[in-house]
Structures are given as C-alpha cells and as structure tokens.
C-alpha cells in the first residue's frame, strides 16, 4: 500500500510525478521531495519557491522542512534567500545529528557548501504584485490574508512515511518572520508506525495548537485521520475564539500508515490533492459543515479557472 496527500491544487503536478515513483515501489523520501520541488519551481504559484511573494523589504525568504517517519529525523530551513529548492536543503539537513534546523545566513552558508543551486527567486511577476500592494496600502503595509503552504504526507510500499513543507510565508511579512511550516509538530509531523499530518494557514495560530503533532497523537489512539483532523482544527479554533475572540485560517491534511486519509479546514476555499494505488491524482474541494468537513472532486471548470487566474497577465497599477 502506498499513498500521498497534499495541501492545495498547486500540488497536483508534483503528485503526478510522485505517483510514478511510488507505483514503482520507490522511496517515500524521493517521492515527496520530487513532488514539492515541482511546486517550488513553478513561477505562477505565488506562495512557494520561485515566484513566491516577498517580504516588506521585497526579499523572498523561504521556509521548508522534511521529516523521515522511520527514524524521526528532521531537517528544516527558514528565512532562506537565493536558493532554488529549499526542500532539498531541508532533506539534506535531516541527515545531520545536530544543526538540523538552520535559518537565514546560516542556512545559506550550508546550502552553498553542499553545492545547492543558487538562484534569484524574486520574479518580475512577484515584483508587480509587490508594487501594486505598495500602492494599495499607502499608509501601513499589512501582510495579506492568503498564505498557501504546500504540505505533504507520503507512504511507500515498504511502510516508510515522510512529511514535508515549503512556503514563502506571508506576503509583506517582517524580515525574518517564520511561521509554522518549518516547525516540527506544527507545520508537519510523521511517524511511520502511526501516520503523518501537515498544515497550512496562519502559522501564528497553527503553532498555538502544535496541530500536526496533535493529529498524529489522535491517530495513535486509534482515531481515523478524518476525525483526527476535524477534532484538532475545530477544537483549536474554538479555543482561540474563546480566549481572544477570533481564529486565523486553519487547514490540515493527514494520512495514516494504512493509507487512510483525512482533511479539515475552517475556511471556505480549501483544496487538496490525494493519490492512492486505486485513485489517480485528484483535486478535491473541502466544504465545512459545522465541525465536520466533506469534500468532492473539483470540476473541470474549477480546475481551468484556477490555472487561468494564476497565469493571467499582470500589469502594474
């Protein structure tokens, strides 16, 4: 049994590449790295990798993480600039006993020493988004509401599981800001004997619930991934609302060691992609119904409009 699940429609092409690896009895680490690199390299996805939207100083700072569910080894980078595939750097760091999470210049020095590809990740398209945003917010710049981390959980035929994330974080964030994505237990967690989870949304709120670890903990108690995702998301949402009156975007995906999966979200427009031996890579749209979530395959019209919107020509205002 093998399977892979990911946040957001943007993961579909990467999942299609991962499917070939997994269907050939390939490694869950190779499959998840390949899938995330595909997202990082596509310039029209403005929240991950090349073409990711910059911070308030117009610098692209990238975060990524990788976890091996067999060994519980973790590698992570944060506030990384000018390297093409942060997920590959994070995976390399997972082989280190110590110094396995590096930030800023430390992460860049390590990547350089290890021979990873240097690349200016700020695209002309991202510059237009930035300049338009400056004109919209003449008084004080505020981070935008969207923050679409690509997060994945993968299971291979040997029973090995991996989890990984990659993001450029909040658009117009403060320099050095780090969200949940590279933080173990918050943005991701996986244990091959149980399962794994990954999150996307407002990192500052997701971290308050250590949400990915919480989902794995619930699955360890025998809870189905769907129930575990719903319980973790909606209990955290309710706690935040009770304590301070509001909660940010909270969305999660999970898969257990048997290839069963689950999702939950407190927003209206969450999508995810899943692939199993009996299921080709499929994009689903999630709908919240109280404290439960249902999902259905995205229509071809929705899929076409998604790409048209993201690839539409931009003009500076």
What do you see in this structure?
The chain has 317 residues and is α+β, with helices and mostly antiparallel strands. 32% of the residues lie in helices and 26% in strands. The strands form two sheets. It has a nine-stranded mixed sheet with strand order 4-3-2-6-5-1-11-12-13. The protein has a four-stranded antiparallel sheet with strand order 7-8-9-10. A hairpin with a 5-residue loop joins strand 5 and strand 6 (161-167). Helix 1 runs antiparallel to helix 2 and helix 7 crosses helix 8 (225-244). The N and C termini lie far apart (51 Å).
Major sheet: 9 strands, mixed
**What's the name of the CATH homologous superfamily?**
(Glycosyl)asparaginase
CATH architecture: 4-Layer Sandwich
- Main sheet: strand order: 4-3-2-6-5-1-11-12-13
Question: Strand-residue fraction?
Answer: 25-35%
CATH fold description: Glutamine Phosphoribosylpyrophosphate, subunit 1, domain 1
Average predicted local confidence, pLDDT = 96
**In CATH, what is the class?**
Alpha Beta
